[in-house]
Specification:
- The complex is a heterodimer of chains A (about 475) and B (about 425).
- Chain A has three domains: about 5-105, PmbA/TldD superfamily (PmbA/TldD fold, 2-Layer Sandwich); about 115-155 and about 170-220, 2-Layer Sandwich (PmbA/TldD fold); about 230-460, no CATH class.
- Chain A is about 20% helix and about 40% strand.
- Chain A has ten helices and 24 strands.
- In chain A, strands 1, 2, 3, 4, 5, 6, 7 and 8 form an eight-stranded mixed sheet that branches.
- In chain A, strand 22 and strand 23 (about 440-450) form a beta hairpin.
- In chain A, helix 1 (about 5-15) runs parallel beside helix 2 (about 70-85) and helix 3 packs parallel to helix 5 (about 210-225).
- By secondary structure, chain B is an alpha+beta fold.
- Chain B has helices spanning about 5-15, 70-85, 115-130, 195-210, 230-240, 245-250, 310-315, 360-365, 400-405; strands at about 20-35, 40-55, 60-65, 100-105, 135-155, 160-175, 180-190, 215, 220-225, 270, 295-300, 300, 325, 330-335, 335-340, 350-360, 370-380, 385-395, 405-410, 415, 420-425, 425-435.
- In chain B, strands 1, 2, 3, 4, 5, 6 and 7 form a seven-stranded mixed sheet that branches. A six-stranded mixed sheet of chain B has the order 12-11-10-15-21-20. A five-stranded mixed beta barrel of chain B has the order 9-16-17-18-22.
- The chains are: A alpha+beta (about 475), B alpha+beta (about 425).
Chain lengths: ~475, ~425
Amino acid sequence: MLSPDLVETLLRQALNGGADFAEIYAERSRRRRVIVRSGRLEEAISGLDYGAGLRLFFGTEVVYAYTNQLTREGLLEALETLLRAKGALGQVDERGAGGLDFRKALPKGLHTPRTPYEEKDKRYRLERLLEAEAGARIAPEIRQVEASLQEWEQEVLIANTEGTWAEEKRVRTRLFVLAVAQDGTEVQTGYAAPGKSVGLELFDLFPPKEVGAKAARQALTNLRAKPAPAGTMPVVVGNAFGGVIFHEALGHLLETTSVAKKASVLADRLGEEVASPAVTYIDDGTLPHAWGSTEVDDEGRPTERTVLIERGILKSYMVDRLGHLLTGYPMTGSGRRQDYTFAPTSRMRNTFIAPGDKEVEDLIASVEFGLYAKELGGGQVKPGSGEYNFAVQEGYIIRHGRLEEPVRGAMLVGKGPETIRKVVAVAKDWENAPGMCGSLSGMVPVEVGQPHVLVSEIVVGGRA
Amino acid sequence: MTLEEAKRYLLRRAKELGLEAEVLFQEERELSLRARQGTLEEIKEARQGGIGLRVVVQGHVGYAYTEELSPEALEWALSEARDNALLAGKEGFIPPGQALGSHDLLGEGLSAPLEAKKQSALELERALRDDPRTRSVLMGGYMEKEVRMALSSTLGAEGALRTGLAGLGGSLVMGDGPSLKQGWDFKLAKEFHALDPGRTALEIREKTARLLNAKPLPTGRYRAYLEPKAMAELLLVLSRSLSAKSALEGKSRLLNRLGERIASEWVTLVDDPTLEKGFLSRPFDAEGTPARRTVVVEKGVFKTFLHNAETARALGQENTGHAFRTYRGILDVAPTNLYLEPVGNLRLEKGVLITEFMGLHAGANPVSLDFSLQALGLWVEEGEVRHAVENFAVAGNLLELLQGVEAVGDDLDWTLLDAAYGSPTVAVAELSFAGA
């Protein structure tokens, strides 16, 4: 995207301007989105994102600029504006005089798609989406189905004044199905959205018809569901996307973005017991073809598998370059950003609770009265207080150790560090699921995951 | 190529290819200054622009956009847009256009020395720390954005506008003994000089500190008072159901309910893109339809959906001029400055004053309008705030909530979310609270 000569000029100018460190991130992304409703293609859009971000450190002070003008003039102008804003123009640093010796890291192709986008035409995609829609039409109550496909092919170049030069092409594909069920004036929705770092083989991994049926079954379940009970009770949280509870309640508290500012209740707690001994919590950016995997992070550093909590003991945070500067913890390849319009911060990749030794049936059988949160929606956390919430997308009452009627509208609320201590049992059935995580550096693809877990008590918000 | 040149290139090529086309370009300049512990920890300077294309081929619509303005990239966008249209099954059209003029809604609003802007960020951050209860300031900052947008079509639409906003905001953790609360807020204005760092910091501190030493709220049904920010969040959820596009897609419970009472008599809901100094005011919408004030709900009666030309034709109703499209997106419908009209008959008695909702994107369903949301709030008795309450969720259905509105205050305040939402404090007869 950019010549080594231009990159070197920019980085050297940044050092000349007094920066201690400089980095350039250039990106070209092709995106396609196709939406099918009522048996026909309703909307299709294709796009080309193209831009670069320049980041300079002056000690721990950061300046960042981005632009779509990737010409020599455009980039130099962006850099100059930035140095002027910092008030740092004119200083000369002798380090700028020497040449930069880039160590070029070649991509290994760990997540290369098997069926690249160009191998199939648009009609092929349309047909798969129509299959997904047909798959959702399993009952007359299903009134509306929306199936959409999202393709995202991102080429990045990251280079910095320490000699890093990394290029990677990241391909991500996701299928969404939304089913709306109606009975009289009652309206409920169901949702399924598999996604991977793959090409069009996504349709082989997740047959569209089954994805449609899954969304529809959830909408129908919610249609006959009663309002959830309200109060404090034991909760069995489902596997895969159920992991979003600990993504919110625990993961965000372990990012140096909040740890470095002591804005996390889990700051300065390495080596301490912060969770129940049943919990081992891992963030792995290397899982092949996972939605949140990349070969290098958005600071050009190879991603890795980071054990955050081992049997309840806090082992590591997720550390980006700035977090490293502020805390001294070693970097973990966790610097991520939505695109060139954001400076990177420490972010989760694929984060999950490791499998335990219990059977799912035993978890349910041990509950006298409680909630089975089979599928969860999204949620939110305030790291400073640890307060979190997330929505139950598909839930059932557990009575006398047996699953009984479905309930809807449940919201789980609590404080993360308290909840993670109340995980009393972890099953064997670990699975991950994709999601989009929003934070300081924008929306990034992540996987969340876990086996089924039993939490001894959570506040369930429902109808009192 | 510049965006102007790219626009002309695309319109010329579209005509050569026999396509009807509408070209929208946007150019944004952004400055953000983030202070922490007395220094500017992050300065961000940005320019971003791109061009979005909507074409019609044989009555079908296709879209594409690009931020790269080389002839190759523009040709790619044209061919993708055309392919997308050829595959589409839904009918669509580009409305006949008119000369819309060139409008400047910003003027000199952001004209101030960079140094003054830096000082405002530093002053805000310092004032956030200036409180014994402050445990840590995550950030205090200044942000400004200037947007230029232009619209052109092969059917004669031609218009441009310039607008922008300045803002101050901060985030901090406050504590009292073991009780901790994280607070965050920002204030926006059309002019830099209208911002007041000291006052904004004081408001953020007071709004956070009042939530400290919270007690659990016993599960039950209570009267609820929704502060402007909390109500704004609910209006955001409701706004999807007010969109005629959602209605046509089977995603609004308000379809076929025009003229019916959907809320209490105290509820009058207006969208006004012509509001002077409105955060999202604009003279015309994304299809070039001139802007006007729209009464959506009048004294509880549902008067109209928000429409663009396509949805108005499909439902046989009047176009309200709410077409929305960014260069990266497809044609949609969106509110601009949507607000609940003040009444002035509200008096606090007994119940929960809800200051803020959390987890809106997960806890509120824009189709069913059911919600179950974690909230922060204060317990009110005999007209006075007694103490903060925490660890609870509020559940219900938004349409039932609107029917239950008993009183509306006169303290109209605005919150910028995906659009600008305004509301006074609102009293709701009864809501279901889940807590201890």
